[in-house]
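Lay summary

Proteins are chains of building blocks that fold into shapes. Our project writes down both the chain and a compact code for its shape. Here are two examples, one after the other.
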Amino acid sequence: MKNPLSRFITVIIMTLLLMSGCGSDRSAVTEQSSEPSYSGASDSAEMTGDGSENKDGIDADGGNEITDNRKLIRRASLTIESTEFQKSINHINGLVSAHGGYIQNSQISGNRYGSQDNRSAYIVVRIPDTKLSLFLDGAEDLGNIISRSESTEDVTAQYTDTQAKLTSLKTEFDRLLVLIDRAEKLEDIIRLEERLSQVRYQMDSVTAQLKMLDNEVDFSTVSLEIYEVRLFTSSEENDILQRIKTGFMESILSLSSMIQNLIVAVISNIPYIFVAGIIAVPALYLFRRVSTSIPVKKLKKRGKSDGNNKSSENNNDQK
């Protein structure tokens, strides 16, 4: 009896062991099958990470697009010395026309007749923003560049706010039109029309601001100061040889200018000299006649008086 019972118990134990082994295998299989899901989750996470990076990249591109669409106002100024003043002015006019710009303001002084001051000019030009660098490079051929400066002002935020304000006003304007159509009372209609006129005025003002900003952005402002000189300001070190050279050249130019002024003065005053000669020659002739006749009469009178004095003296001596 013991043998069958023991065999039965042994069979039951082996069955239990086999079942436990299958359960462990199934759990292992389950774990193995679950691992791809986790890897898939990690892959999806990585894909999500890649997607976020791509999204960031798109944002970055969008950022670059926003950067490209920024509203920038560029300004520049040049101070120039020129030995050929009128030629420089003509060159500026040519540059402005060639680059599609226009002259906003122009002031030229020192060209009055008889003025000893050198001429100078202050010119404000508007150049398309895309042509600003080309214009500045071309302006360097005008003469000796003393100073050059450039500045940029970012008005993107101001422009965006102004656009948003205009959009809001347009929305309110459309709503007011609808309310006026639906209004039945005369008081409501009058009140709505008053508000409508106010909104229309604000819209016109904001639109003008946007146009002004667009003009400032599309056309850069360049201020030019041009001075007529006889010698360019030296950019080299101010050593003694350079000072001697500059002083010598200035002396020659001063002497040449003095001689030219003297020649101009003499030639331009020929009519006055001719009239003065016509008056002076007869006057000098009369003066000489008068001056020569007066001494002769005086000498005759003086001779008679001397003779009388001598005769009286002789008479006294004889006595």
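And here is the second example, written the same way.
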Amino acid sequence: MYAIVEVSGKQFKVANSEYLRIPLQNAEANDVLEFANVMLIDDEGKVEIGTPFVKNAVVTAHVVEHARERKIIVFKKKKRKDYKVKRGHRQGYTLIQVDSITLGQAKAEKPAETATPAAEKAAKPAAPKAAKPAAEKPASPKKAAPKKAESVEKTEKE
């Protein structure tokens, strides 16, 4: 049995009791993580494909440790400009072990309890007020640009 799960925007193929490196998660060692974004489950030939996720499917795993990847060297150079920059980067990751892949049934909702009409009125929120139509702003007439004083004087002299 295996599943394809989305974790932190990335997709991973997981199987029971498998170790997996995922992007760094905010969890302590031995914490249990549940991933509900299951995109596909294959159970011995029976395949469930989600649109985009399979409903009621959960992958549970526990955190083994947090660590960092190997160092990656980032080297920049511009020839004939005396520009060189050498930097290193180590990406953090979380090592998890998959405990189980489950495709559960929909949870049954509890039947509503019968209550007296007075209790229903007290518990019922007030009806929402009708929304006021948005007041349209009147179109403001565009004002003509004031004439320059010089042009007025020229016309008077003529």
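What can we say about the second shape? Residues 108-112 have pLDDT under 50 and may be disordered.
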